[in-house]
Amino acid sequence: MAQKEGKIPFHTRFGLRLLQVLLIVFALLLIKRCVDIYHDNKLTNEQIKIEYFEKGFNSGLKKARGLPEDPAPPFNNYALKKSYRDGYRQGWDKGREITKQQ
């Protein structure tokens, strides 16, 4: 089975084309997601972001103290989810500091 130097087997060419198509599809999906996140962030009011941050802070504070935490509110977009997570993390840290001091 001697192959000529310049000829690439069919299965290799097919695999390379399939890989190119998959990479293009994944890149387009990633770009779409990034644009949607940016668009949601621009449309979200700062007051609503602060409200979700406070909800997350209170929930994280309760969880760190061993109390039952509040259920997570439904998230309309990524900006609200990020705000809630940031508040939860800070509330958790604050609650851990309080429990260590006691």
The geometry reads as elongated
Percent in strands: under 5%
**Please, what is the average pLDDT?**
88
> Largest sheet, described in full?
none
Number of strands: 0
Distance between the termini: 78 Å
Q: Low-confidence parts lasting 5 or more residues at pLDDT below 50?
A: none
Name the features:
102 residues, 76% helix, 2 domains, elongated, mainly alpha
Overview in brief:
This protein is mainly α and 102 residues long. It is built from three helices and no strands. It folds into two domains: 8-43; 45-102, no CATH class.
Describe this structure in words.
- The chain is mainly α.
- It folds into 2 domains: 8-43; 45-102, no CATH class.
- 76% of the residues lie in helices and 0% in strands.
- The protein is built from 3 helices and no strands.
- The protein has helices at 10-43, 46-65, 78-101.
- Helix 2 (46-65) runs parallel beside helix 3.
- The chain starts with 9 loop residues before the first helix and ends with a helix.
SSE blueprint and pairings:
Blueprint: H1 10-43, H2 46-65, H3 78-101
